[in-house]
Design goal:
Number of helices: 8
Strand order of the largest sheet: 3-2-5-6
Low-confidence stretches: 196-206
Largest sheet: 4 strands, antiparallel
Number of strands: 9
Order of helices and strands: HHHHHHHEEEEEEEEHE
Shape: globular
Length: 206
């Protein structure tokens, strides 16, 4: 963060944007950790605002608005106020907020086949098993599903105003076992965060 701020103060907006974008990516790569660490929240918020303002200073209005919309979707209860973030950030935030608020909200249902799987949406805890979120601003949401020590998996869910997006996630894989390549199958499942269930029963039909 400090390096990004230094780059910003030196008017090196390209470097500032790169640093702030990386800070945001770190939280997205560890969604459950980001959700559990309250101290990460202001860092990610400032990084999103940093991306928005850096892009704006370089004339990239699309990226600036996209980063601010991401702030609004991820932290719907928080605001970019003039005192904390400055008048430039506040003005951009208000313009994007007004644009999004004029659109109807949507709903997102995450249906998981494992009732013990933990669901995170945009690096925030959403619930256990299947969850339904209401009054979401339209746009793309990151859905992360995990269980226990597994790394889990991340999906993109597109929410449109006035509609409900349904994301059905198969968290468990079932197979009989006993194959010469079981180790490869298990490794592939582990890499994808899948829970593997072995039935011990094989059926041959010829």
């Amino acid at each position: 963060m400090s390096a990004g701020n230094d780059a910003w103060m030196n008017a090196d907006f390209d470097r500032a944007r790169t640093i702030f974008e990386r800070a945001v990516e770190v939280s997205r790569e560890a969604p459950s950790e980001a959700a559990g660490r309250i101290s990460w929240r202001p860092m990610v918020q400032r990084s999103l605002v940093g991306v928005a303002l850096s892009a704006k200073r370089r004339g990239d209005g699309s990226t600036a608005e996209s980063a601010m919309a991401e702030f609004l979707r991820t932290y719907p209860g928080d605001v970019v106020d003039r005192t904390t973030f400055g008048p430039e950030a506040w003005k951009l935030y208000e313009a994007v907020r007004k644009s999004l608020s004029e659109q109807p909200t949507g709903r997102l249902t995450v249906s998981v086949d494992d009732p013990d799987a933990v669901v995170f949406v945009n690096e925030r805890y959403a619930g256990v098993g299947s969850v339904r979120l209401e009054d979401l601003l339209p746009g793309t949401y990151r859905v992360h599903v995990r269980k226990g020590a597994s790394p889990g998996r991340i999906y993109d869910a597109q929410v449109f105003g006035g509609t409900e997006a349904v994301d059905r996630i198969a968290f468990q894989a079932i197979q009989p076992g006993g194959s010469m390549r079981d180790d490869e199958v298990i490794a592939a499942a582990d890499a994808r965060g899948l829970a593997m269930v072995f039935t011990g029963q094989r059926h041959f039909r010829h």
